[in-house]
Structure formats: C-alpha cells, structure tokens
Design goal:
- It is built from 13 helices and 16 strands.
- It is an alpha/beta fold.
- It has 2 domains: 121 residues, Threonyl-tRNA Synthetase, Chain A, domain 2 (2-Layer Sandwich); 278 residues, Rossmann fold (3-Layer(aba) Sandwich), CATH 3.40.50.
- It has a 10-stranded mixed beta sheet. A 4-stranded antiparallel beta sheet has the order 3-4-6-5. It has a two-stranded antiparallel sheet with strand order 1-2.
- The protein is 38% helix and 21% strand.
- Helix 6 packs parallel to helix 8 and helix 8 packs parallel to helix 9.
- The protein binds adenosine-5'-triphosphate (ATP) and magnesium ion.
- The site of adenosine-5'-triphosphate has 14 residues, from helix 5 and strand 16.
C-alpha cells in the first residue's frame, strides 16, 4: 500500500521536494540498481580480472585452460547522501583509480544518475560518488553567519557541502572567468561576509571602480587608477615590512603567534580585473607597471604570515601580460575557474595537472553564471561549485551597515591592532 502510494506520488515529490523524493524513492531504487549492475559493468569496463590467465605454456605447447570467470572488484553497500550516494570499491592489485574514473560515464548511465565521480581518498580503494541531479541548478538557502575570522561561506559545492573560502588556510586566491561568468559576484559574496569581521578590506578596481565602489563604505582604501594602485600597493608593502619587524621582535613567525591584544588587523586586498594593472599602452606606463607588479609579488611572498591576503580576479591572467604575472600566479595557491572561452585560460588557472577538472570547466554553460571549478573541496581535490548570488544592492547594504568596522588606512600604516 505504502509502496503504491510512493510510486504514485514519486513524480510530484521529485519536482517539488527533491531531497525528500531522493530519500524515499530515488535512493532505494538507485542502490538496488548499483548492486544489480555491478558485475556486468565491471566486466564490460575491464574492471574485473581473471584470477589466473586462461592460457598456460607447457614445454612450448600452449594449453588452453578452463575459462575462468572474471572476479569483480569488491563493492561495499551504497550509502545515502543528500542528492546522491557513495559506494566504496576495493581495487584489485595492479589497478589504479584512473581505470574507475574512465568508467564513470558508463556507471552514470547504468545507474541513471546525473554524474558519477571516482575519488581516491584511501590507498587500495576508490569511492564512487554519484549525484542524482545537478545540485548546482537547484536553488538553495546558504548558511550565513560567522565561519571564523578570514573565512567565508561563498556558495555550495557540487556534493551539497558548503563552499568555504578560508584565507588562513589558503592565503591568496586567483579567480578567472570570461566576462559575466560570476567573478565579481563571488567577490561580493566573500566581501559580504568578511565585512562583518575584524578585517581591513582594500580595493583595486581599474574599471573606474565600477565593481568595488559598491563596498566603498567598508573599504579602508580604493584605488581606481594604476597610479593610485601603485601608491596603495607600495604602502601595503611598507605595512608588511613593519609587521615583519614586529614579529621578529616578538620572536613570532606569523602575526597569529602574537598576543591577541597587539596583533595587527588582517588586510584583504581585492583586485578586480588584474589585466588592467599590467597593460602597457606606452613606454611611460612601464615604470608604473613594474612598480605595481613588484609590489604585488612581494605581498604574495610575504603576506601570508603577516596577515595580508590577495584576492585577484581577471578574465585572463596569462604570460602575455608580462613575466610579473606568471610569478604572481605561482603565489596564488587558491584557484577558482569560472566559465572560460578557451582551454588555455583554464589551463592557466587550474594548471594542466587534472584533465578532468579542465574538461569540467569547458562544460560550464553560459546559462549558469556563478558555476566554477575550484580547488579546496573535501579531500583537497577540485570540484564544481556555485557561488551564492549576492546582488549589488545587498552587497552595498552590508558594506554600509558594517562600515564602522573599517579601519582607516592611516591606522593600518601605524600598525593598527585589532
Ligand atoms: N551564483 C550566481 N547565481 C546566479 N546568477 C549569478 C551568479 N553569479 C553571477 N550571476 C549573474 O551573472 C551576472 C554576471 O556576473 P558577474 O558580474 O559577477 O560577472 P563577472 O565575471 O564579474 O563579469 P565581468 O568580467 O564582465 O566583470 C550577474 O549579474 C548575475 O546576475
Ligand atoms: Mg566583474
């Protein structure tokens, strides 16, 4: 009776309350499908191995043995997850997780899931994570609240977990993406949370301040021309050097080892459209570009321990902008790659280490702005994520409300403690 009721209500549940549908109908059916199809899938995808080869050589004569049934890899029970399931598989000796990654597409079809990913989180086994639908197209109510100083929940990972950017763990970030892919919205999501914390925010926006001026009330400084940026970055390097002297005096290796009372306030430097800083129209620009580039690089190298963090957004951050950019990119360990128009840009942002991540970037369509591939998911790998949509009005409102927390820039220069 109950089963009949569920079968009738299933399409409605799926449309209206997908999580409830998944728990009651989708998951049990998918778990059965996973277990039922495993032998055939493993055989067809060459994941099963025969215990002994069916041929033997005896004195130069080839003997054909009795055909051995291939042994399928041992699989655990599929465990429920929000909007998906996960199942652990033990690797046969000689197998690597790549063999399973290559078979993910077939598994997704056989199990009627949206996508399957093979994650190798322990030696000798691989976890197959299947999601029932694309979680990034489903609207969600994100958690807003304190995630700890210098960290912010900026959206949702593909597996349903909160996407946290923690500058204490990964100090500097590079955010790339084509125009209207969601870079500034991610910065807005981050700022609207950092604004509530005891953190100084500094902006560099050479698009005439169009994007970052929204947060002006909460910014300690905003540079809108390259001249201003050079001046501001120069001053920040001075701040870094004086913090370094402070740490040395106290025998500390970072500002976080200083007593809380005298600890300088962390500074987050936001740069929107970094290419503008490096473009040279004439020779006279050269000195300024060099100045900016050196200062950014020094902040990248010294900043992490001194509480100065870089968050750099741009459409392209390639070596064609000069050698300074390549060196700077190496300092920005945190990477977020939104939709891009060419593979080269994705490779630049994510490195060419992970083919799968590069393919995932190329599959981001332009009707889902805010979807990106980012590093920093659970297990330290890449994953797709979607940023929280923070409208310019919301960002402006938060910046106004918490404007009183913005330390004056002169205070930072004077070594202002938090
Ligand atoms: N997470 C999101 N969810 C829904 N819509 C989004 C999301 N992120 C961005 N958008 C939409 O996409 C539009 C463009 O985003 P945004 O301005 O952040 O792009 P951008 O990469 O900064 O572009 P540009 O390079 O032109 O500055 C926004 O107006 C917003 O409506
Ligand atoms: Mg923008």
């Amino acid at each position: 009776m109950l089963a009949l009721l569920l079968a009738v209500a299933s399409p409605w549940l799926r449309r209206r309350v997908p999580n409830v549908w998944w728990a009651l109908c989708g998951y049990p059916a998918a778990a059965v499908r996973v277990l039922w199809t495993w032998r055939q899938l493993a055989d067809l995808q060459n994941l099963s191995v025969p215990k002994r080869p069916p041929l033997a050589v005896l004195g130069g004569v080839v003997l054909r043995g009795r055909a051995l049934k291939p042994i399928k890899p041992r699989m655990g029970f599929p465990r429920w997850q929000r909007g998906g399931l996960v199942v652990r598989v033990r690797l046969h000796a000689g197998q690597t997780p790549e063999a399973y990654a290559a078979a993910c597409e077939s598994m997704a079809h056989a199990w009627q899931m949206f996508a399957v990913r093979a994650v190798s989180d322990a030696r000798g086994s691989v976890s197959l994570r299947a999601s029932a639908w694309d979680p990034l197209t489903v609207p969600f109510v994100p958690f807003v609240g304190s995630a700890g100083v210098l960290s912010a929940v900026v959206g949702l990972w593909e597996d349903g977990a909160r996407w946290l950017i923690d500058l204490r763990r990964v100090p500097h970030w590079l955010i790339v993406g084509a125009t209207r892919s969601g870079k500034s919205t991610l910065v807005a999501a981050l700022v609207s949370q950092l604004a509530r914390q005891k953190v100084a925010l500094v902006g560099i926006d050479l698009k005439g301040g169009m994007e970052l001026s929204l947060f002006e009330d909460r910014l300690s400084a905003l540079a809108t021309t390259r001249g201003e940026a050079a001046d501001l970055l120069g001053k920040l390097v001075e701040v870094a050097l004086s913090r370094m002297a402070l740490c040395r005096e106290a025998g500390a290796r970072s500002i976080w080892e200083l007593p809380e009372k005298g600890r300088p306030v962390p500074v987050v430097v936001l740069v929107d459209e970094v290419a503008e800083l490096y473009l040279m129209a004439s020779n006279s620009d050269k000195a300024e570009v060099t100045q900016v580039s050196t200062a950014l690089l020094r902040l990248g190298q010294l900043g992490a321990a001194l509480g100065i963090h870089l968050l750099i957004a741009g459409q392209r951050v390639g070596s064609d902008l000069g050698p300074g950019v390549t060196a700077l990119r190496a300092q920005l360990a945190g990477r977020v790659c939104f939709r891009v128009s060419d593979k080269g840009t994705a490779e630049m942002a994510l490195g060419d280490l992970d083919r799968e991540a590069l393919d995932a970037v190329q599959e981001i369509s332009d009707d889902t702005p805010g979807v990106a591939v980012a590093f920093g998911a659970a297990g330290g790998s890449w994953m797709r994520a979607r940023s929280q949509l923070v409208t310019p009005e919301e960002a402006q409102r938060v910046a106004k409300r918490y404007g009183y927390l913005a330390p004056a820039f002169a205070e930072l220069e004077a070594g202002g403690a938090s």
